[in-house]
Amino acid sequence: MANRDNSSRETQSLSRHETSVCHLLYVTLAHVRGPAEAELRRLELTLPQFSCMSNLSTAPGLSGADLARKASVSPQAMDRLLAGLHSRGLVMRSLRRTFGHTLPATLTDRGEELLRKAESALRTVDDCVMLGLSAREVDQLARLLAAVRTATVP
Fold it and tell me: CA 84 → CA 1, 52, 62, 67, 81, distances in Å?
């Protein structure tokens, strides 16, 4: 009986907010974040560290400021994050400044290896989250989320 009540409350709650994409994204992130963080914790990584490493994998040589913008954190927070990854031998920062004060960062071989393990671990979370969706729906969801991510927000 309790499950039925919770289920109907969730349905009623969703009905009230079904037109609020921001609300749905927030609730979905809250639902997925715990399992994702647990998987990454086993590898001694956090979500921000994973995000940083993932960005460096696709765009080697980004500066701390560029990485901070992509992660929506302050440059100071990104510098601390990069320093931690560097001390673990996962990221290498150039000793030469390229433009102004920027120190480009790249993943080390060890960083690339850990990133592959993290991506594999997060795929298990993806599989659980997408359970019940067809391959077509998963593809559509991925395209829609990518479109939302690149949209200009005032």
Answer: 49, 12, 17, 14, 5
- Number of neighbouring beta carbons within 10 Å of residue 3: 7
Residue 152, pLDDT > 80, answer no
Pair of tokens at residue 152: 């200009």
Partners of residue 91 on adjacent β-strands: 107
**Domain boundaries defined on the chain:** 22-150
The token pair that represents 2 in the structure block = 């309790």
CATH 3.50.50.60 fits 22-150, yes or no: no
User: Residue 93 pairs with which residues in a beta bridge?
Assistant: 105
pLDDT digits (tens, 9 = 90+) for 41-79: 999 999 999 999 999 999 998 988 899 998 888 999 999
Collapsing DSSP to helix, strand or coil, 75 comes out as: helix
**From start to end of 24-113, where are the E strands?**
91-93, 105-107
